[in-house]
Write a structure and sequence with these properties.
single chain, alpha/beta, TIM Barrel, 8-stranded parallel beta barrel, globular, binds 1,3-dihydroxyacetonephosphate, cytoplasm, Triosephosphate isomerase, TIM_sf, triose-phosphate isomerase activity
Amino acid sequence: MRRKIVAGNWKMNGDLAEMEDLLGEIKNQLGSVDEEITLIVSPPFPNLYPAFQSLRETDVLIAAQNMSQHEKGAFTGEVSADMLKGVGAKAVILGHSERRSLYHETNKDLAEKVKTALNHKMNIIFCVGEELESRKQNKQVKVVKHQLEEGLFHINSKDWGHIIIAYEPVWAIGTGETASPAQAQEMHAEIRKMIAEKFTPEIAEKVSILYGGSVKPANAKEIFAKKDVDGGLIGGASLKADDFLAIANSF
Ligand code: 13P
């Protein structure tokens, strides 16, 4: 059975005090979440270690929102895999559309980041997703295939245990507009097919594929009910403990 995952991408939100409050509220309600569900939170870099300390006694995992492809050296403003692991991040989000569009991360950059992360045995939440223009032209599958082929599919079969894929249609991020459950299912099934064809059906069957883009308590249930949707990568709604946990309880 595939792992069910609800991951919060906190983006650039919350100072230390606000994060402590949020984590406190999340911890208070953890008892309500089914043990089968893996919860992940992704604080900004400076808050990774305090989050790790705060979550020590829990099963909540911590992911960073980005990582350098380089090991160390003269890369001002960058953060390495070793540094992330040292402060308790077991996973990293790579290829988020905001990184791709605002910071010009290319598929080639992402392929290198994936390689570095895997060398350090980090787990990766690899994001893909088309922009509105591509969806209008019905090119979404082609776009996502290209992102996967260029950015992720160079990995070895044995590394798939470290990979989670997040399908986040750019037009649904922070817009209040969600892909319909049918649209999400269709793309998730396509992604699984791509993995089966390039690797093996067994590997494809085991990879968790999350949906992201305006997921909230009101729509999570019908999205998560789809056969190939294994959870969500949540932005705005993950900043409220009640909403985040309600989403986690939507399977
Ligand atoms: P929203 O849930 O705010 O639309 O953001 C989704 C997202 O980008 C998660 O990575």
